[in-house]
Specification:
The protein is mostly beta strands. The protein has one helix and seven strands. The protein has a five-stranded mixed β-barrel.
Length: about 150
C-alpha cells in the first residue's frame, strides 16, 4: 500500500484520534455485564493492578501451591534433603531437592517464598509426580509444604 499521495491535516488526525466529530472528544463510558466495573477473564489482565506480595509464612515453614500440570504418581510423602537452585538453560532456573538417594525437581522457576530456604536442609511434603507438557527429564516432586529441618 502506498501512502505517498495522502496528505493528512492536523484536524483530520485529531478527529480520528478522538473518535470523530460527533463524539465531543470523549469516549463513551464502557458498559460491563451485570454491573461490573471492570472486565473479567483473560481480557481483564491489562486492567489488573500490579501484584502485591502475599503475607509471608514463618521463615521455617512455607505452604506451596501445587503445580496443576504435575499429576501424582505416588502417595504423599515427606522427603528430607537440601534445597538447591540450578540452571535449566534458556535463562530459566529450577528449584531442586537433593535427597540422600535422588534429586527431585520441585519447581520451574524459584518461588519467592522459598528463596530464604535455598541452601538449607529441609523436609518437603508432597507427592512424586509426572509433569505433562514441556518438562525436563528427571524425577519431579509436587510439594505442598517445605519446612526447614532442625
Amino acid at each position: 500500500m502506498k501512502f505517498e499521495g495522502i496528505h493528512w491535516s492536523a484536524t483530520a488526525l485529531l478527529l480520528l484520534a478522538c473518535g470523530g466529530p460527533s463524539s465531543g472528544g470523549q469516549a463513551e463510558p464502557a458498559e460491563f455485564p451485570q454491573g461490573q466495573t471492570a472486565p473479567a477473564g483473560p481480557e481483564a489482565r491489562e486492567f489488573e493492578p500490579p501484584a502485591q506480595p502475599t503475607k509471608r509464612a514463618e521463615a521455617n515453614t512455607v505452604r506451596v501451591e501445587p503445580d496443576p500440570q504435575c499429576h501424582a504418581s505416588g502417595p504423599e510423602q515427606e522427603v528430607r534433603g537440601k534445597l538447591e537452585r540450578r540452571d535449566l538453560g534458556h535463562q530459566v532456573e529450577g528449584l531442586f531437592l537433593q535427597s540422600a538417594d535422588e534429586r527431585w525437581l520441585l519447581s520451574y522457576g524459584i518461588p519467592e517464598d522459598l528463596t530464604p530456604l535455598i541452601g538449607s536442609d529441609v523436609i518437603v511434603t508432597g507427592t512424586p509426580c509426572t509433569r505433562h507438557g514441556r518438562a525436563i527429564v528427571g524425577a519431579h516432586f509436587n510439594p505442598t509444604r517445605v519446612q526447614r529441618a532442625e
